[in-house]
């Protein structure tokens, strides 16, 4: 037997709240499917993913003893096409809208066929070994959360927005963005905003495969729009303001919480709000220009450790 633990975390999109109303988790192995009710005192378990950025995790399943072996997993959520704070929803500056997913069906879950139930299906098998097994369902909302479009007034969570990671096989990356003037270092935030023009900005750091050059770093986009030597990001992390006890901004920081061990490149942008994963956004777009302003190379991640990398690397944050 082994113990199964599952949490959820997030790489956020440009929203204020992304609330998912979770119902149950199902593991499908060679035998009978195992179902775990994740409700909170009989009510749906509401998780605002933007409260669990970086290495922060909200637990769905804890300490469940199950047979060792190979499994696939389904997570079931309640979906809603109308604005409803009792269900899944997204909140932006414009208000609240419903949140749904196009994936449905059963992998052995009770109630999985209910009309208001959406399914997040992980088709890649994973192993439950003897001892403690800690997994995280990591949501990449910048890639898989689709804003209302056409005649739809609700958000859509695509199956590509979430992946399952084993805590024993990942590390983390964190750092800060230089936003102060100096004789030796560029003000990364201000310089990016000058290059972008306009008045609307959203800072983010993008994670790319090793040796991806600045000129080859592009946005999240359909696979058909990626041509050599362009490289799409693996994930992104929102840059958050750091506040002191008086709510004054003292700096800007980012964090990737669950990164498979290896070597990576990073890119910083201040126009993440213009990254529509359904289309290719380029620097010369008239309405939604997107570009990576500055890069960092050779970012090494090892299991169980946090790698620190600032923009630029020579920046030393004030303690």
Automatic annotation (TrEMBL):
InterPro entries, alphabetized: DUF4382
Entry keywords, A to Z: Lipoprotein
Cited Pfam families: DUF4382
Domain DUF4382, residue spans: 2-159
Name this protein carries in UniProt: Lipoprotein
Organism annotation: Shewanella colwelliana
């Amino acid at each position: 037997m082994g113990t199964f633990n599952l949490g959820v975390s997030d790489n956020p999109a440009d929203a204020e709240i992304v609330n998912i109303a979770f119902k149950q988790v199902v593991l499908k192995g060679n035998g009978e499917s195992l179902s775990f009710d994740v409700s909170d005192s009989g009510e749906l378990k509401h998780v605002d993913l933007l409260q669990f950025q970086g290495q922060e995790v909200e637990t769905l399943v804890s300490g469940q003893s199950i047979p060792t072996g190979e499994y696939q997993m389904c997570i079931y959520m309640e979906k809603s096409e109308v604005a409803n704070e009792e269900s899944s929803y997204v909140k932006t500056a414009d208000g609240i809208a419903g949140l749904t997913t196009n994936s449905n069906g059963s992998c052995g879950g009770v109630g999985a066929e209910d009309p208001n139930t959406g399914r997040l299906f992980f088709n890649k098998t994973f192993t439950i070994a003897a001892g403690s097994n800690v997994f995280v369902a990591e949501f990449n909302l910048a890639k898989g959360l689709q804003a209302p479009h056409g005649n739809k007034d609700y958000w859509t969570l695509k199956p590509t927005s979430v992946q399952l990671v084993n805590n024993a096989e990942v590390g983390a990356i964190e750092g800060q963005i230089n936003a102060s003037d100096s004789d030796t270092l560029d003000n990364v935030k201000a310089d990016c905003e000058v290059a972008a023009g306009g008045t609307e900005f959203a800072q983010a750091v993008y994670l790319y495969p090793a040796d991806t050059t600045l000129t080859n770093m592009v946005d999240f986009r359909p696979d058909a729009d990626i041509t050599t030597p362009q490289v799409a990001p693996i994930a992104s992390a929102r840059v958050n303001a750091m506040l002191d006890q008086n709510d004054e901004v003292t700096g800007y920081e980012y964090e990737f919480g669950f990164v498979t061990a290896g070597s990576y490149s990073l890119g910083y942008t201040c126009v993440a709000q213009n990254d529509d994963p359904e289309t290719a956004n380029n620097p010369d777009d008239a309405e939604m220009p997107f570009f990576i302003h500055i890069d960092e190379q050779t970012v090494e991640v090892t299991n169980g450790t946090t790698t620190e990398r600032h923009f630029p690397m020579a920046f030393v944050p004030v303690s």
